[in-house]
Design brief:
The chain is an alpha+beta fold. The protein folds into two domains: about 1-30, no CATH class; about 40-255, Muramoyl-pentapeptide Carboxypeptidase, domain 2. It has helices at about 5-15, 20-30, 95-110, 180-190, 200-215, 220-225; strands spanning about 40, 60, 65-70, 70-75, 75-80, 80-85, 90-95, 120, 140-145, 170, 170-175, 195-200, 230, 235-240, 250-255. Helix 3 (about 95-110) packs across helix 4 (about 180-190) and helix 4 packs across helix 5 (about 200-215). The chain is globular and about 45 Å long. Bound molecules: zinc ion (ZN). The site of zinc ion (ZN) has 5 residues, from strand 9.
Length: about 260
């Protein structure tokens, strides 16, 4: 970089208030995830979200450049869920996210009484920070959940580090993609009023949109489906991202207000 370019970059940094690391984060982080809506904000009471009353600060920084202190550990199993990839130490989580997912798991179990529980993948490493195989998952506010299948397949939780079924076949949702249960899963998650984005392949999002139209619920589903954002490599799981806990003043949330409702 020559002297003029260096001076220009310095000027930008001073004008915008960005640190060098946050600039790098903004452009390099999350290569597999959409950065269209990447404006970040300090966590404050600007948003009227329902919060859990947790005393300790847990989430620090932003999803793709953050840390996690005083974390909870996601249990290996509970009502309506199991944790996958147990050999990886990737089950560290904020209390808020753990409570939201466990509550959703319970609702799904009561609603469907299916033999297959929610299958939770990676959350964050102990202390947060860079997590192998992920661009975000750094401050305990991101979680992966295997998509639900019609054949109720349950992955072996002690083995592997990847989900074992791709639900997009030749550009279409596979016949094993459970439209009803995956839609209800997403609906329950959004109803927590804490979700920002849910990353999912656009083919599967379209299938869910058509499904809600076919059952005459598209109008009421618009807000729910609007949280779904296409990101590649999300043909086997959803990635759920929530807002900052109230007790984490140094947490930054990603502005999701530009996500259009609907499909
Ligand atoms: Zn993820």
């Amino acid at each position: 970089m020559d002297a003029i370019s260096r001076a220009f970059v310095l000027l930008i940094i001073i004008m915008t208030g960005f640190s060098l690391s946050s600039l790098a984060g903004a452009f390099e982080a999350e290569p597999e995830e959409s950065m269209v809506h990447s404006r970040v904000m300090q966590n404050d009471s600007h948003f009227n979200f329902p919060f859990f009353q947790i005393e300790s600060e847990q989430a620090l920084g932003i999803y793709w450049e953050g840390h996690l202190t005083s974390p909870d550990h996601f249990d290996n199993e509970g009502e309506g869920y199991i944790k996958l990839f147990r050999k990886r130490s990737t089950g560290w989580v904020t209390t808020d996210l753990a409570m939201i997912v466990k509550d959703v798991a319970k609702k799904m179990a009561n609603q469907f009484q299916a033999v297959d529980p929610l299958q939770v993948g990676d959350v964050a490493g102990f202390g947060g920070g860079v997590l192998d195989g992920h661009a975000s998952h750094q401050n305990g506010l991101d979680i992966d959940i295997r998509l639900l299948s019609k054949n109720h397949h349950i992955q072996e939780p002690e083995k592997g580090a990847d989900f074992d079924e791709n639900f997009v076949m030749k550009g279409h949702a596979s016949s094993n993609f459970d439209l009803e249960r995956n839609y209800q899963l997403i609906k329950h998650i959004v109803e927590s009023k804490r979700v920002t984005f849910i990353f999912l392949d656009r083919v599967l999002k379209s299938a869910l949109c058509r499904y809600t139209k076919s059952i005459g619920q598209y109008e009421s589903a618009k807000t729910i489906l609007g949280h779904l954002d296409h990101v590649v490599s999300h043909q086997d799981h959803i990635h759920v991202r929530i807002t900052c806990p109230q007790s984490s003043p140094h947490c930054q949330i990603q502005d999701f207000s530009l996500l259009p409702p609907g499909c």
